[in-house]
Amino acid sequence: MKIIVRVLAIVVLFIHIGDGARILGIVPTPSISHQVVFQPLWRELSLRGHQVTTITTDPIKDPTLTNLTEIDLHFSYEAWNKIIMKNILAFNDNPIRGILGFVEQGLDITDQQLRHPSMQSFLKSEDKFDLAIIESVAPVMIAFAEKFQCPFISMTSMDGFTYLYKSMGNPTHPVLFPDSIYPYYEKMSLAQRLGSVISTNVMSIMIAYSSFSQDQLVKKYFGENYPSVQHLMNNASLLFVNSDPILHKIRPLVPTVVQIGGGSHLRKPKPLPHDLKEKLDNEKNGFIYFSLGSNVKSKDIPMETRTTILETFSELPYTVLWKFEAENLSNKPDNVIISKWLPQQDVLRHPNIKLFITQGGLQSSDETIHIGVPIVGMPFFGDQAANIKRMVAKGMGLSVEYTALEKNDFKAKILEIIQNPKYRNRVKELAALAQDQPMTGLERAIWWSEYVIRHKGAAHLRSPLLDIPWYQYLLLDVIAVLLFGFTFSTYILYILVRSLLRLIRRNLNDNEKKLK
Ligand SMILES: *[C@@H]1O[C@H](CO)[C@@H](O)[C@H](O)[C@H]1NC(C)=O
Ligand SMILES: *[C@@H]1O[C@H](CO)[C@@H](O)[C@H](O)[C@H]1NC(C)=O
Ligand SMILES: *[C@@H]1O[C@H](CO)[C@@H](O)[C@H](O)[C@H]1NC(C)=O
After folding, report:
1. In this structure, are 246 and 328 located in the same domain?
2. Nearest ligand, CA of residue 131?
3. Cα separation of 137 and 27, whole Å?
4. What distance lies between CA 492 and its chain's CA centroid?
5. Pairing state between β 375-377 and 397-399
6. What mean pLDDT do residues 214-242 have?
7. Distance between CA 383 and CA 199 in Å, rounded?
């Protein structure tokens, strides 16, 4: 049955192979975890006969994709790598400072990108586009949609922040749906709810603050007569969020918010490199895979943490495969294999894998759910803590804190996950749920992109929330009228009762006088 649904979905997808459109894709964040989410989309759109131009820090560089033109901004990694670990470690002391670091230095990188000769010539081009798909973390880039006068889709490689949902007129709620950087709680205490309200508002203030500088950049590179970035952002036809109902919380969505998550970046299995495959095949006892993703560099984590990790690993009866970005790791135990890069999806698919120790980035989380490997989480920054807490709450594993890592605790958790089958069984259940859907995230993204092209936008789906003032949405005027009505009628009642009592008293007094 599942197969039939799948085939039907694909047939439906291919009914419209109409004329190729011209599509502009902009993903300016120099982080591979942001890029991998959208690479399959560029590939698929170009294979469907559209002329796709992307501005990206990680071009696919596949010569068989003849309809894909890529403007390469790979140089941005140099600036990004200089700041990333500093901001990640600052995040732990003070999330606001960590985020502000990303916001400010992100602007700097956008400036460098727009100054680059390839972008300068693109800015002068007379190209025409039918659709732009733009990563929303760099809102300056939305000015391209205005320049080319085409509808655009806003997208994010994570779940959307509250301000993004708001920009689409999607209902938000700081207690039910805290921002993805706020740690996830199954049930929030009063202090946690207060924290979520404050953090959501601090985030809004930071976004408003950065929008001044964004507007300056638009003026500098695009021209004077551009609407504000905030205004442009509210004009998005759709918002693609990289979330799904299995890993993320169930929430009401307006039709202009499309969930494309749930492993849309997963690719077909590929054989592992020969020597790696041989090593892992021999681990009949099972092996552990340890990676902190692409942004957190294992080689730069605090020395104390690294020492505890190595001591823990040395006491394990399993081999540990560690994605470690330097040549050498001093005091490396014999059961630890390091490698600068590993084909993560294929390592996770290896039948001998027992456990994934992960920082809990969204892509890694999606992969481990879809492939069905239990975890020990070690979050560092951004949405990682929330992702890990959700996975722990779902019974997929356990977590540790890298700032307070303790050998016996870490070791006990690793052994518990490997030796107690309940975690693995639970992940398998979740994998089955995650895969059982009528369309994959990628198929949804393609269908909706072509929908926006066919109808030149999606203004007819625009949320009515965008067109009423906030005080009306919050019922402030209604509450005011009700309060006034209530106070007024209580007052009238009071006057009436008082007059009545006076009347009665007077009558009583008169009667008394008469009696005297
Ligand atoms: C490129 O697009 C054309 C239609 O514009 C299509 O016929 C062709 O198959 C596409 N080629 C590739 C390699 O995607
Ligand atoms: C909003 O987007 C539409 C296309 O969807 C475009 O025609 C219009 O000019 C845009 N308005 C502003 C103010 O950017
Ligand atoms: C790593 O260790 C090997 C042998 O111990 C040595 O030859 C090499 O220079 C080291 N590399 C670095 C980057 O330290």
Report:
1. no
2. 2
3. 9
4. 55
5. parallel
6. 94
7. 14
| Ligand 2 site residues, Cβ closer than 6 angstroms | 146, 151, 227, 232, 235, 237, 457
How are the residues of the chain apportioned to helix, strand and coil, as percentages rounded to the nearest 5?
55, 10, 35
Distance 20 CA to ligand 1 centre (A): 8
pTM of the model: 0.85
| 267 within a domain of the structure (yes/no) | no
Residue type at position 341 = W
By CB atoms closer than 10 A (0-12, 13-18, 19+), residue 498 is exposed
Amino acid residing at 129: F
Could you tell me if 245 and 361 lie in one domain? Answer: no
Which amino acid does the sequence have at 289? Y
Atom 2, ligand 1: residue with shortest CA distance:
49
* Claim to verify: residue 414 and residue 447 sit in the same structural domain: no
Residues 183 and 297 in one domain: no
- Look at residue 269 and tell me if it is in a domain: no
Ligand positioned closest to the Cα atom of 49: 1
Measured in degrees and rounded to the nearest 5, phi and psi for residue 63 equal -65, -15
Q: What is the CATH number of the domain that holds 306?
A: 3.40.50.2000
Ligand 2 atom 3 nearest Cα: 151
Give distance in angstroms: CA of 299 to centre of ligand 1.
Answer: 43
Domain for residue 3, yes or no? no
d(Cα 413, Cα 440) in Å, to the nearest integer?
34
| 326 lies in the same domain as 397 | yes
Ligand 1 pocket check for 46: Cβ under 6 Å? yes
Paired tokens of 65: 């994709």
pLDDT band (50, 70, 90) for residue 89: confident
Tell me: do 147 and 228 sit in the same domain.
yes
CA of 237 relative to ligand 2 center, distance in Å: 9
The b-or-e profile of 135-155 (16+ CB within 10 A means b, else e) is bbbbbbbbbbbbbbebbbbbb
Share of the chain above pLDDT 90, in %: 69
Using alpha carbons, select from 77, 136, 145 the residue that is nearest to residue 112: 77
Residue 11 domain flag: no
Return the ligand number nearest the Cα of 17: 1
Q: Which atom of ligand 2 is nearest to the CA of 227?
A: 13
Q: What is the mean pLDDT of residues 151-158?
A: 95
Angle between helices 384-393 and 362-371 (to 10 degrees): 30
Tell me what pLDDT residue 7 has: 52
pLDDT class for 510, splitting at 50, 70, 90? confident
Look up the domain containing 498 and give its range.
Answer: 473-506
Q: Are 447 and 480 in the same domain?
A: no
Together in a domain, 237 and 127: yes
Query: Which atom of ligand 2 sits closest to the CA of residue 457?
Result: 5
| Ligand 1 closest atom vs CA 64 | 13
Tell me which of 508 and 315 has the higher pLDDT. 315
How far is it, in rounded angstroms, from Cα 201 to Cα 100?
A: 14
Q: Ligand 1: distance of its center to the CA of 113 in Å?
A: 30
Instruction: Specify the number of domains making up the chain.
Output: 3
Q: Are 51 and 98 a contacting pair, CB within 8 Å? A: no
Q: What is the distance in A from the centroid of ligand 1 to the CA of 47? A: 6
Residues constituting the chain: 516
